[in-house]
């Protein structure tokens, strides 16, 4: 008797299996371009094939078909190249990248583009929570809605969200910019240290130490430039939010002194 | 970590392969919880009651008297059901310690369930006209094989893969939880409730008893009690966002509805697909892909959201 689901569950979701795996060599290569179908391949095999093409075959433009929302795809790519995922990614997609231009036609799960250093990632669909966590640089453009804590601990770069964003967006943001075109949930910019958040829609509530900022010409120039680069049309009217710098971490007191003073 | 999943079909008059689909969903999230797997499956409504119960745990030592003890206790369960007025149609032995019994009965359900649970080692997993809860240790494929769930046809279902954190790895600690003693209500949960003991004491004072030490069981009984007072499933779930404390995403099912609630911190994941033919939701999208092998549009519900779908 066949096992339940036999032949249908063909992948290990976290890709922890197959420690001895090698790239499957399934891509069709045409000059500096390549395409392969990820259907039926494990996370590990997809990433191995991707890395083989980029690092060993000299390919600079890869199309991955049917990624199937598998986790951890396209992570750790540290070269300038172009990757297109025709479908959706699961959790931790495109994390720790430095340089690539990645286009995703579907959605992405939690923690997409975590610790991205540079490059451009565009997502046509929705994104889960923690999108762009600890982003260091580059542009992350999300055409759908995003979950909670987008840009948590952001340290640089730009996150552009065309849809709505969940709660605690920009939580503990340290540097960089966020351009949020839709409505935003509670606790926007909670405990942010620095950085700038632009919001076009309604803000449910501001987080601790997040305050309205004064709009200036540099803000207009920045937003217009990002909209122009990413062909997003005319920018709507935004409000600007920055750090009020009133939290304890901005005083000059030692921890022991703080106990006495506060 | 744990993984939860739910599926409800738009057109399931003839019954869909809900057992097989839920197995595919749960197996694809095996990495979220390898300790135990559970199903709450809704088959076609039966005029009779369907009760699933166990007489031992998978972990129990198989001493020389194990088989005799099980046989004796099974006899006691059947005897008590009959003595209390239940007309038993069939008792099916699912495993050496798990049973499915169908019977007709008119009367107080709680007393009947209490009487069965009073038999040494007995635990009622579910009781209702359509709900059947199946749970055991191991991954979805092994549980589905053991209980032959591949052929189970029905209208909607929820499921759970468990990574035990706060209670033992046993059948009692496995989800889903039936809303003892309310028929046809069950819950799967991912998260932690921090006011568990407060609610447990409160519900115990109202006469409820709990089968496990797991915080998730509170949610099922909490919802069922609200509904027994006249509240809808959706209103009950909305109330829970304010009255239950902690981080949680849970899915609740009744005979004709499936709902999801996400706490106000949105700390536990959930991905949702709403199609014309079905609604499928899970902790990870790969679970939805396991039953929908095509490109689909999904999204994460926001914090504090409650959504309910009626059959």
Description:
The complex is a heterodimer of chains A (262) and B (311). With 262 residues, chain A is an alpha/beta fold. Chain A has a single domain, classed as 3 Solenoid (Pectate Lyase C-like), CATH 2.160.20. Chain A contains 3 helices and 12 strands. Chain A has helices spanning 43-56, 217-229, 255-261, and strands at 28-30, 33-37, 61-65, 82-86, 98-104, 118-123, 139-142, 155-161, 175-180, 196-199, 210-212, 239-243. A 12-stranded mixed β-sheet of chain A has the order 1-2-3-4-5-6-7-8-9-10-12-11, covered by helices on one side. In chain A, a hairpin with a 2-residue loop joins β1 (28-30) and β2 (33-37). The model of chain A is unreliable at 1-11 (pLDDT under 50). Chain B is α+β, with helices and mostly antiparallel strands and 311 residues long. Chain B folds into 2 domains: 3-45 and 130-310, Aminohydrolase, N-terminal nucleophile (Ntn) domain (Glutamine Phosphoribosylpyrophosphate, subunit 1, domain 1, 4-Layer Sandwich); 46-129, 2-Layer Sandwich (Alpha-Beta Plaits), CATH 3.30.70.60. Chain B has helices at residues 18-27, 66-83, 109-117, 140-147, 196-205, 216-228, 233-243, 285-289; strands spanning 3-9, 36-42, 49-54, 87-93, 98-104, 123-128, 131-137, 156-162, 177-178, 186-193, 246-253, 257-262, 271-274, 278-282, 306-310. Chain B has a 6-stranded antiparallel β-sheet with strand order 7-2-8-1-14-13. A 5-stranded antiparallel β-sheet of chain B has the order 9-10-11-12-15. In chain B, β4 and β5 (98-104) form a beta hairpin. In chain B, α2 (66-83) packs antiparallel against α3 and α6 (216-228) packs across α7. The interface between A and B is large, with 37 and 34 residues.
């Amino acid at each position: 008797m066949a096992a339940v689901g036999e032949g249908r569950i063909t992948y290990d979701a976290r890709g922890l299996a197959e420690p001895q795996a090698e790239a499957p060599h399934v891509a069709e290569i045409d000059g500096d371009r390549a395409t392969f179908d990820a259907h039926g391949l494990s996370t590990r095999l997809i990433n191995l094939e991707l890395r083989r093409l980029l690092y060993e075959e000299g390919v600079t433009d890869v199309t991955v078909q049917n990624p199937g929302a598998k986790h951890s795809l396209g992570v750790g790519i540290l070269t300038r190249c172009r990757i297109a995922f025709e479908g959706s990614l699961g959790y931790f997609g495109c994390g720790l990248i430095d340089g690539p231009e990645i286009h995703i036609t579907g959605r992405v799960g939690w923690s997409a583009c975590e610790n991205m250093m540079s490059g451009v990632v565009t997502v046509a669909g929705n994104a889960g929570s923690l999108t762009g966590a600890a982003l260091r640089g580059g542009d992350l453009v999300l055409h759908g809605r995003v979950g909670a804590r987008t840009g948590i601990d952001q340290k640089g770069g730009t996150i552009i969200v065309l849809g709505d964003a969940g709660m605690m967006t920009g939580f503990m943001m340290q540097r960089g910019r966020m351009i949020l075109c839709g409505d935003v949930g509670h606790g926007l910019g909670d405990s942010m240290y620095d950085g700038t958040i632009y919001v076009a829609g309604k803000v449910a509530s501001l987080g601790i130490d997040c305050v309205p900022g004064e709009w200036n010409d540099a803000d207009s120039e920045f937003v217009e430039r990002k909209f122009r680069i990413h062909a997003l049309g005319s920018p709507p009217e935004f409000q600007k939010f920055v750090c009020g710098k009133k939290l304890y971490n901005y005083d000059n007191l030692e921890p022991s002194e703080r106990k006495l003073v506060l | 970590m744990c993984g939860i999943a739910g599926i409800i079909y738009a057109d399931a008059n003839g019954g869909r392969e809900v057992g097989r689909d839920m197995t595919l969903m749960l197996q694809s999230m095996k990495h979220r919880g390898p300790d135990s797997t559970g199903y709450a499956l809704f088959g076609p409504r039966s005029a009779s009651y369907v009760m699933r119960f166990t007489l031992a745990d998978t972990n129990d030592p198989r001493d020389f008297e194990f088989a005799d003890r099980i046989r004796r206790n099974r006899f006691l369960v059947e005897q008590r059901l009959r003595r209390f007025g239940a007309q038993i149609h069939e008792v099916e032995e699912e495993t050496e310690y798990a049973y499915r019994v169908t019977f007709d009965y008119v009367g107080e359900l709680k007393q009947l369930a209490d009487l069965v649970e009073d038999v040494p080692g007995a635990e009622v997993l579910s009781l209702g006209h359509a709900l059947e809860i199946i749970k055991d240790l191991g991954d979805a494929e092994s549980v589905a094989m053991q209980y032959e769930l591949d052929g189970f046809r029905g209208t909607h279902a929820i499921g759970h893969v468990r990574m035990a954190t706060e209670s033992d790895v046993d059948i009692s600690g496995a989800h889903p939880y039936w809303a003892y003693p309310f028929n046809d209500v069950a819950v799967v949960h991912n998260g932690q409730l921090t006011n568990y003991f407060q609610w447990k004491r409160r519900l115990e004072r109202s006469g409820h008893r709990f089968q496990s030490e797991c915080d998730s069981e509170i949610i099922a009984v909490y919802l069922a009690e609200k509904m027994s007072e006249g509240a809808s499933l959706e209103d009950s779930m909305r109330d829970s966002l304010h009255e239950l404390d902690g981080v949680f995403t849970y899915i609740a099912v009744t005979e004709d509805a499936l709902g999801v609630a996400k706490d106000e911190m949105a700390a536990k994941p959930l991905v949702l697909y709403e199609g014309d033919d079905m609604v499928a939701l899970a902790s990870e999208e790969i679970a939805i892909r396991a039953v929908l092998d095509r490109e689909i549009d999904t999204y994460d519900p926001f914090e504090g959201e409650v959504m309910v779908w009626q059959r």
